[in-house]
Design a protein that fits this description.
Strand order of the largest sheet: 1-2
Structural class: mainly alpha
Helix content: over 70%
Number of helices: 8
Distance between the termini: 63 Å
Number of strands: 2
Shape: globular
Radius of gyration: 18 Å
Order of helices and strands: HHHEEHHHHH
Strand content: under 5%
Length: 208
């Protein structure tokens, strides 16, 4: 069996899915719950790009197509933030693992586009989490606000190089994707902010 044949065999869903789940389990039982979710969401998102039907965006709204799972991509950015808290700089290793798994579920061009977009936005997130001392809820929104536009524009531009996908590089696709990602980040940041407010009185009572 050649490498190409073995790779094609591994891309069958009944082979790829157990590989993804086993990898997630390895991270989970190693104590990295958020990293486990992160490496599992990446192949899901990349798979959805080619498998989930999109909705056409009217030209007066910028044209292009809306991806229904775009909001999940926003949650991936937040999950990555939590994974970074677990793994520190090793989160880049988790990203690489997620991209390798993505090669089992999507086109290689999509994997490359996703990797480039994640690498750029990951650099922004690293800077925010390294140099900002703001509460976690604020850092989530700050990092997402800075990284979501970069992530979306780089991914859509590279993905538009796929034959038949040229039309997706439109302002409608870009803006709806950015807004969806920011919506996902905002929901999570509000949940974290509520937890921070609940914990504040306890912190005041126990300053040590």
């Amino acid at each position: 069996m050649t490498f190409e044949q073995a790779f094609a065999f591994a891309q069958q869903w009944y082979i790829a899915l157990p590989i993804v789940l086993a990898t997630m389990a390895a991270f989970f039982f190693a104590g990295h719950r958020w990293a486990a979710l992160y490496v599992g969401l990446m192949p899901l998102i990349n798979w959805s790009f080619g498998a989930v039907p999109t909705a056409a965006i009217p030209e007066w709204l910028g044209g292009g197509a809306f991806q229904p799972l775009a909001i999940v991509t926003g949650l991936v950015l937040v999950v990555r933030d939590f994974a970074q808290r677990e793994l520190k700089h090793w989160v880049l290793g988790a990203m690489i693992v997620g991209l390798v798994l993505s090669s089992l579920t999507s086109w290689i061009v999509v994997v490359f586009a996703s990797g480039a977009a994640f690498l750029i936005s990951e650099t922004v997130d690293w800077a925010v989490y390294t140099f900002s001392k703001r509460p976690l809820s604020q850092r989530i929104m700050l990092s997402s606000t800075l990284s979501a536009p970069l992530d979306q524009m780089v991914f859509i531009w590279l993905a538009s190089q796929i034959p038949g996908q040229e039309g997706i590089f439109a302002w409608g696709t870009i803006l709806t994707g950015i807004l969806s990602k920011l919506l996902g980040a905002w929901v999570v940041s509000r949940i974290i902010a509520r937890q921070e407010r609940r914990a504040a009185p306890q912190t005041d009572m126990n300053p040590a």
